[in-house]
UniProtKB/TrEMBL annotation, chains A, B:
Gene3D superfamilies: Tetracycline Repressor, domain 2 (1.10.357.10). It comes from the Bacteria. Keywords: DNA-binding, Transcription, Transcription regulation. InterPro entries: DesT_TetR_C, DNA-bd_HTH_TetR-type_CS, Homeodomain-like_sf, HTH-type_TetR-like_transc_reg, HTH_TetR, Tet_transcr_reg_TetR-rel_C_sf. This is Helix-turn-helix domain-containing protein. Residues 12-72 form the HTH tetR-type domain. It holds the Pfam family TetR_C_46. SUPFAM superfamilies: Homeodomain-like (SSF46689), Tetracyclin repressor-like, C-terminal domain (SSF48498). It comes from Amycolatopsis melonis. Residues 35-54 bind DNA. The lineage of its organism: Bacteria, Bacillati, Actinomycetota, Actinomycetes, Pseudonocardiales. The keyword DNA-binding applies.
Amino acid sequence: MTTAKRKRMPRAERERQMIEVAEQVFSARGYAAASMDEIAELVGVSKPMLYEYFNSKEGLLLACIRQSRAVLREVTEQATVGAADAEDALRRGLLAFFVFIRERRQAWSLLRHEMALIGTPAADEVEETRRQQTDLIAALMSGHFDSEDDLRAEAAAEFVVGACERLAIWCERHEEVSPETATEYAMDVLWSGLRARARTH
Amino acid sequence: MTTAKRKRMPRAERERQMIEVAEQVFSARGYAAASMDEIAELVGVSKPMLYEYFNSKEGLLLACIRQSRAVLREVTEQATVGAADAEDALRRGLLAFFVFIRERRQAWSLLRHEMALIGTPAADEVEETRRQQTDLIAALMSGHFDSEDDLRAEAAAEFVVGACERLAIWCERHEEVSPETATEYAMDVLWSGLRARARTH
DNA sequence: TCGTCCAGCTTACTCAGAGTAGGTTACTAC
DNA sequence: GTAGTAACCTACTCTGAGTAAGCTGGACGA
């Protein structure tokens, strides 16, 4: 075991450690129920250090969210490079997303919960993450779709993000649904539309 | 003005009044930033009364959420009765929803924010509201669609709810988009699918 | 070898706001 | 009237965010 007094480590390293612990505690207990004292104790440091580095409880949350967002961006962007067409790009992006939420549950849970921080920086931060994904999709669409109507295209992008977010939460309740299956479900509705499944009577 | 000491009113009426004020304060300040003292003061009553009737801050929030949900259920269910077919029912339901979020902003803002109360009753309550809408859609679909695959149908319903929720939030930023236009955008993607809009190249 | 500097760290507080104990008043029924 | 109780209050406790002020160990120049 790495016993001994784990003391005096450089700021950058300590920050990484704090974020790691905070992500765990926030996603386990929820933001409101998590206490700075507990996080400090788990890190093995006193509370004022957290405030020294992150200014506030919300600042610490912000750092966690930003980190999760960076990872999400990385994986989804990487996934779509080299896609043959719109359908392929969409499918690859969706798959990357559904894999992310399965493999990095804590990060995802930070991103999905709105935080009761309406109007505060943290809420904006979560919203910013969605905007990131929306922009990605909007960009993708503008490359492959006729966009005589920008507003409509924007709405469609929002629509896709919201739908996938909800489907992702649904997946949490359904262990048996693999990321691949989830992607197929999403593509089914998104690409073909519900009309294709309507009973002809 | 209804001056004078507005005192001693029956419990039911006082509760309604409290919920009304609380809905305002919660949606204006956000759950965390709202204080029970302020709500009590605005109601014109002392704090222990709030606790007498709702047990806790979260209990008060719960009451607000339940009320909003009841209204949402009412309007969307009413909207879909007498629809000719699946497409019509979907369109009517969507329109009712988009009208609701425009006309009852405070109620909607309570329902959309996740509250940082993971695992607590309030979070379940918001989730319950989505389930209500999901069930509505699932029921609608099972009436009009071939459902050889229940899981797929359930996923599709979640998908629709998530997509509309996000589109609704997007509408908050776009005053110029009417509920009718929002409904059209939603139907466009949902019913016809993105394939219909893909550039043929 | 010794100062001195400062990043990393601490103890010991304040303060706001959730929640409560226990008492007071005004209506209602007889 | 007066007994009973629903509606209401004052005056607390206690938890947890945030802060003031000071301690310490090691790098680095003289």
